[in-house]
Amino acid sequence: MMMISKKKYFKKSLRILGVLIGLELIAVSVAMFFDPHKIAAGGATGIAILVKEVWQVPLSSTLLVVNVLMWILTMIFLDKVAAAKITFGSIILPLFLALTPNLMIIKNPLLSDIIGSIVFGVGLSIIYRSGYSSGGTTVPPMILNKYFRIRNANSLFVIDGIVCLGNIFVSGFENFFLSILSVGISTIVMNYIQTGLDKKLVVYVMSEDHQEAIQQSLEEKLAVGSTVFDVRGGHSNKQKEMLMIVTDTQNYATLLDLIFDLDREAFVLADSVAEVHNGSF
């Protein structure tokens, strides 16, 4: 029991450390890449940049106010569990933003926007994978989804779009387009990190006369295991067997060659999977 509790404590400590790293990456992206060029790239940090440009209010102060308001809305319209997930990030991110130096590392606005978006996406992905949230404008979509069944992604896109539009009135059209670019890059980075670091292919194979030979060949030459399903043809109504193989993407071409060397008419269906845990492949 003592060993289990130590492992749980260690995992929880690593998770909190990951969240802190993610929050600091977001703070760096805002203070060193977005704010020096007045690029309000959506979200609560984008609102903070717009407010700073108009009224000279510090980024951390605006962000803290927005996060506190969002936390109150969470307590009213959602639940304590959701509020607990955003509490840590809502407090720590403004603190990190206040402590992070506001420097212009890159003078080129486009390059700064691209690098800042990548850093922001990596930071947010780390936080999400740890089961936490940075709060801010992620809260209204959760409320709209609960009460009106509006998809989170759709309402978040609209909110980010409104913040990006603010660039037109504060900094001009160039910054507006840079902010749109930033949202796109951050989304791509987040999607890749969330689903792409352990991406594998799952391949289904059916052969009329060479199923066993294909299975044996794949095990011997590619050292991949397989799972056999009993299936029934929708048209023929005949009982058949189907192999399921999980493999790395770089092995896919070799796998196809092995299959088609034995049966040119084999049915092959491949799809990508985000993550694979345990098992043998």
From TrEMBL:
<keyword id="KW-1133">Transmembrane helix</keyword>
<protein>
    <submittedName>
        <fullName>YitT family protein</fullName>
    </submittedName>
</protein>
<dbReference type="Pfam" id="PF02588">
    <property type="entry name" value="YitT_membrane"/>
</dbReference>
<feature type="transmembrane region" description="Helical">
    <location>
        <begin position="86"/>
        <end position="104"/>
    </location>
</feature>
<dbReference type="InterPro" id="IPR015867">
    <property type="entry name" value="N-reg_PII/ATP_PRibTrfase_C"/>
</dbReference>
<dbReference type="InterPro" id="IPR019264">
    <property type="entry name" value="DUF2179"/>
</dbReference>
<keyword id="KW-0472">Membrane</keyword>
<dbReference type="Pfam" id="PF10035">
    <property type="entry name" value="DUF2179"/>
</dbReference>
<feature type="transmembrane region" description="Helical">
    <location>
        <begin position="176"/>
        <end position="193"/>
    </location>
</feature>
<feature type="transmembrane region" description="Helical">
    <location>
        <begin position="12"/>
        <end position="34"/>
    </location>
</feature>
<keyword id="KW-1003">Cell membrane</keyword>
<dbReference type="InterPro" id="IPR003740">
    <property type="entry name" value="YitT"/>
</dbReference>
<dbReference type="InterPro" id="IPR051461">
    <property type="entry name" value="UPF0750_membrane"/>
</dbReference>
<feature type="transmembrane region" description="Helical">
    <location>
        <begin position="110"/>
        <end position="132"/>
    </location>
</feature>
<keyword id="KW-0812">Transmembrane</keyword>
<feature type="transmembrane region" description="Helical">
    <location>
        <begin position="153"/>
        <end position="170"/>
    </location>
</feature>
<feature type="transmembrane region" description="Helical">
    <location>
        <begin position="54"/>
        <end position="74"/>
    </location>
</feature>
<feature type="domain" description="DUF2179">
    <location>
        <begin position="225"/>
        <end position="277"/>
    </location>
</feature>
